[in-house]
Amino acid sequence: MIKLADNQFDTQRLHAGYDPKEHLNSPLPPIYQTAAFALGDTDEAEQVAEGSKEGFTYSRVANPTVRAFENRIAALDGGIDAVAVGSGMAAVSYALLNVAEGGGRIIAPTNLYGASIDEFQSIFPKFGIHIDFVDDINDFATVKSLIKADTKAIFVESVANPSTDIADIENLATIAHEAGIPLIVDNTFPTPYLFRPFDFGADIDVYSSTKAINGHGNVVSGIIVDHGQFDWGNGKFPQFTENEFTLETADGQPVSFNEKFGSAAFISRVRIKYLRLFGSVMSPFDAYLALLGVETITERLDKEVSNATAIAKYLKAEPHVKKLYYAGIDQENPLVKKYFPMGIGAILSFEVDGTEKQVDAILNHVKVFTYLPNVGDVRSLIVNPVKITHREIPASLREQHGLNTRVIRLSVGLEDVDDLIGDLKQAIVSAF
Ligand SMILES: *Cc1c(COP(=O)(O)O)cnc(C)c1O
């Protein structure tokens, strides 16, 4: 693997985590479309199986194309390692189960992605994992007051969907660490290009790489990245310190994940227990497409942020728009200044000063924007979140997070910005 300094983002997005010399000098990671790998001789097979030699055996556990994607995102995000999975929801689920399995509590805000809210409200409690929800995650006194003996993590989205509220990662990491628990960040919206939570103390990042990391709307996938700084041996997380029956030393002694993998205990456990046993795998072809997407992440996001900013300015001045949700437009916001000097991303929302029928008319009249439930695509997308992407959010929580039936969410792509603004204008004109 090519070793690069931390800050060479543009070189890393093209080269990190993959050495062509190990792959017949193919400059792009080849698609290893195979379920399993020949084991060589029995000695070699034994070494790979016990983990003393790096190698591949079965593509549910690891695959060279997927590994290149994992290595690349780990490098871009400033982590020690990553595990790619079949979707962003698998990344959220595995990360939180790995930290809180067996029972415990997680603190999280109510302004999360709809499926995360649904999972936290209706599924995790059945696994003994209870979520203490807080309306404003930057209300530090309330967050601190929710920490109990069995609290296992704080989970936040760095930039919330669709309100674009920003979580104060550095302060939340400090609060978490004082309590001996990790801060887990869903950093899907900004991607590692616009924001690296690890630089501000976060411990685990999760991504839906369905979105802007890939950027082409052609693959559902997710990835978990480990900062490698958290002490899993502090007594709160027995799953990392008890002997693990699949692991042993060279002379056959049982060991724990902490003993065997040290700072990589968390991410190794995600792979060996959750990916290997629960099985939500990213396919080699999907990893190849996602890697292609990453190659242009800088240029895509630069232009998308610039397009989104121009659209936000237009919407701010548009008489039929009552409220704009795009934290990035407020350069004086201290959280924007501190965390997002290059922009918060390409997703923004606005509330129409009109009826639901007029909102429908806008959605039905756009020609350049595509009406579909996704974000982070090179194409500009439009959706009505309350009816489509955020149906799971209970009605009682919607209003405070910018969610009512007159709110429209945009994910801004790479088209000519004048065409995008013109498209919104004509749709608004026909609606009113
Ligand atoms: C889309 C999304 C997810 C879920 O990702 P999938 O790839 O659709 O499973 C999780 N978190 C956020 C912030 C998202 O936008």
What would you note in describing this structure?
The chain has 432 residues and is an alpha/beta fold. The chain has 2 domains: 9-293, Aspartate Aminotransferase, domain 2 (3-Layer(aba) Sandwich); 297-431, Aspartate Aminotransferase, domain 1 (Alpha-Beta Complex), CATH 3.90.1150. It has helices spanning 9-15, 42-50, 64-77, 88-100, 114-123, 140-146, 169-178, 191-194, 238-241, 257-261, 265-278, 284-294, 297-317, 334-339, 356-365, 395-398, 417-431, and strands spanning 81-85, 104-109, 129-134, 151-157, 183-186, 204-208, 222-226, 244-248, 254-255, 321-325, 347-352, 370-371, 381-383, 407-411. The strands form 3 sheets. Strands 1-7-6-5-4-2-3 form a 7-stranded mixed β-sheet, sandwiched between helices. Helix 5 links the parallel strand 2 (104-109) and strand 3. The longest helix is centred in the C-terminal third of the chain and has 21 residues, at 297-317. The radius of gyration is 22 Å and the shape is globular. The N and C termini lie far apart (57 Å). The model has no long low-confidence stretch (mean pLDDT 94). The chain binds pyridoxal-5'-phosphate. Pyridoxal-5'-phosphate binds next to helix 4 and helix 5. It holds the Pfam family Cys_Met_Meta_PP.
